[in-house]
């Protein structure tokens, strides 16, 4: 970088044929210009200027360097302008990753509007439940549900994950409907995850500050896939605790019913958030910032 500064100072001095004018135009001291020119001449082993008390003129070596240097400096300046433009106007390739269910129900329906709003952005979407290494895979942005596990990443919370306790009318007709939180444990529950006991956490919605009550639930079906749990709930197989965006359509169609709708129920003791994560950088690119802002505007819930 120091060499580039020296060459830029030489080019401006050659253009103006004056150390003092070059210094004034660059906003530096005359001594700074003189020092850089002297260092450049020592490095090249040739005088670049003929100096006199009246005038400053390029030597043959100075003219050769200036003629060949001008296109290179112009190309560098243009490259810098092009790069700055990337951050002024969101553009370029945005590589993002998201878990399958959230992508299917929330992100993918949002993408057409985002791409229409930002026609200069191209999107590569890696839909994958496993956590991938963002830098190795050249990922700009990762959507994750739950507390981020990688402390080296930066991020922004998009929206809280709101879950609904649901069952089908067929299941409720055959097995009855729980009227209290403890009664849920008496029912067949559809369990997220394949290992260990499962607890759900509930508290009255009217008591926002109340500590959630843990309830150990059991059932004959478990899965690590939310759509599998939804399928079994629709097939009258039990009570499921699923994100609201996953059950919204079935609720509107009457194929599922919300249970204990005056309770806040979730799969973890603490509130769960949807996060947008990105590799640590001093400046977040405008394309990443644009996508996060778009998600917050369209997906955020109180």
From TrEMBL:
Domain HTH lysR-type: 1-59
Assigned keywords, A-Z: DNA-binding, Transcription, Transcription regulation
Name of the featured protein: Transcriptional regulator
Pfam name, any one: LysR_substrate
Membership in a protein family: Belongs to the LysR transcriptional regulatory family.
Record PROSITE patterns: HTH_LYSR (PS50931)
Native source species: Frateuria aurantia (strain ATCC 33424 / DSM 6220 / KCTC 2777 / LMG 1558 / NBRC 3245 / NCIMB 13370)
GO function term, MF aspect, one: DNA-binding transcription factor activity
Phylogenetic classification of the source organism: Bacteria, Pseudomonadati, Pseudomonadota, Gammaproteobacteria, Lysobacterales
InterPro entries linked: LysR-type_TF_proteobact-type, LysR_HTH_N, LysR_subst-bd, WH-like_DNA-bd_sf, WH_DNA-bd_sf
PANTHER family attached to this UniProt entry: HTH-TYPE TRANSCRIPTIONAL ACTIVATOR TTDR-RELATED, HTH-TYPE TRANSCRIPTIONAL REGULATOR
């Amino acid at each position: 970088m120091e060499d580039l500064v020296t060459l830029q100072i030489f080019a401006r001095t050659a253009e103006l044929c004056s150390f003092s004018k070059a210094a004034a135009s660059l906003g530096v001291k005359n001594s700074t210009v003189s020092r850089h020119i002297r260092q450049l001449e020592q490095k090249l082993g040739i005088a670049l200027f003929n100096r006199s008390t009246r005038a400053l003129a390029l030597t043959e070596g100075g003219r050769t360097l200036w003629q060949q240097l001008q296109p290179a400096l112009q190309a560098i300046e243009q490259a810098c302008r092009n790069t700055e433009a990337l951050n002024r106007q969101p553009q370029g390739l945005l590589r993002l990753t998201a878990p399958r269910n959230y992508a299917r129900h929330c992100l993918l329906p949002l993408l057409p509007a985002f791409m229409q709003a930002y026609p200069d952005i191209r999107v590569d979407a890696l839909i994958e439940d496993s956590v991938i290494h963002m830098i190795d895979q050249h990922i700009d942005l990762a959507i994750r549900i739950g507390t981020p596990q990688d402390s080296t990443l930066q991020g922004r919370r998009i929206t809280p994950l709101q879950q609904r306790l649901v069952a089908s009318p067929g299941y409720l007709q055959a097995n009855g409907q729980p009227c209290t939180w403890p009664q849920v444990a008496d029912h067949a529950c559809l369990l997220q995850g394949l290992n260990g006991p499962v607890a759900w956490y509930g508290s009255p919605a009217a008591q926002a500050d109340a500590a959630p009550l843990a309830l150990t639930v059991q059932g004959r079906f478990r899965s690590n896939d939310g759509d599998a749990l939804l399928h079994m709930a629709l097939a009258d197989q039990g009570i499921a605790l699923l994100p609201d965006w996953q059950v919204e359509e079935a609720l509107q169609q009457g194929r599922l019913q919300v249970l204990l709708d005056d309770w806040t129920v979730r799969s973890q003791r603490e509130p769960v958030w949807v996060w947008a994560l990105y590799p640590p950088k001093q400046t977040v690119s405008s394309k990443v910032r644009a996508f996060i802002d778009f998600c917050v505007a369209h997906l955020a819930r109180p």
